[in-house]
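Recap quiz, item 2
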Amino acid sequence: MRTANILLVGDELLNGTRRDAHLPFLAGALAGAGVAVRGCAVAGDDEASIADIVRAHARTADVVIVCGGLGPTTDDVTREGVARALDRPLALDEEALARLEAFFARTGLTLYPATRRQAYVPSGAETIPNAVGSAPGFLVETGGCRLFVLPGPPRELQAMTNDFVVPRLRRVFNEAPLFTRTFRTAGLGESALAALLEPLYGRFVMFRFASLPARGRVDIVAAAAPGAAIDTSWDELAAALELELRNLLGPALYGTGDVTLEHVVGDLLAGKNMTLAIAESLTGGYMAKQLTDVPGSSRYLLASVVAYADEAKHTFLGVREETLREHGAVSSAVCLEMAEGARLRTGATLALAATGIAGPTGGTPEKPVGLCFFGLSWEGGADIRERVFSGTRADVRERVANASLLMLYEKLIEET
Ligand code: ATP
């Protein structure tokens, strides 16, 4: 299997002012060319550190991608670091300079002398055109390793990877894409899933499994194990695995690949000709945002009322004043009236509601931070649940929204 190392360059990545966006993108793009990322390092804007890491990386992988630090300012020293690692001088690439001049003429920007540095590459390197920005990248071969050096802005790096790096690797390596399949589950914790699935993993040794929990859901990723010998196709093996997972997990396995739970819930609602309304308090519109992220959600989502104040709960959802007075806004009784109000006032088949204390302030001994009531109303019934969610304000809001969506999913499955 072909391998790659990634070197991210920039003080901003080391001092925490920027979060890396390149590794997840590059890992996926390189997998498409049959190249597995084996390591990733971060260097500050320092020529010697860049040179040291490039030398070490190039000895241990077929491909090295160096990201960032190709700009015109004095802290952009990646080309010097790479030249030092390769022990080659920087030389002006006339074609790159012509493209740079054309870019500045086209965009009406001033080409300062310092910017001309961007047309210098280590001698023997091939420049990589940049269709969306000024700094060209370059490709240089050293001791059997292909070293791609790309600018840091994600838009530029991504375009150059898609247009140049991946096609080039496909051509020279001619490797099949790395096989991975993601199985998406909801409603079972990571440990419960592991207990159910361990025996299965032992029978599918041609895959390496990873369990990735996030937002109250767990993704199971099955990746082709390096060097695994198989006598059928990966697609057939993944289909056999999916069948067994479905038998074990039932509807907790809600989809595969890129599908989201919001998508699945939307398709179930549309398929049953059902409509939905939402009454939100502490989530402030987040539940509606999640559902409307799905294109075509107007087929089933009628409305979401963000009723934050008590008065709004009364005015817009018909929550009774005495219910608010007797139980408080964060209560099962108010949540029930919010859900019923949203359903009756919009004429939706189903309504979701959530009320709670997101924190960090506002908690009391009886009603601590994280206490939430959420649930569903339908004609002739309702189900309101109580949970205390932990974490930050953002965590609590996200968790209650996800728990509500899961309830909706379970209700729709139950009706199937
Ligand atoms: P420029 O010509 O824009 O200076 P450059 O190749 O010098 O390009 P950098 O200066 O390293 O690139 O970064 C340019 C922009 O891209 C900055 O806003 C930087 O924070 C962002 N960036 C760089 N590396 C990353 C990364 N790994 N993840 C996300 N953003 C990044």
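The chain has a mean pLDDT of 95.
The two ends are 45 Å apart (CA to CA).
End of item.
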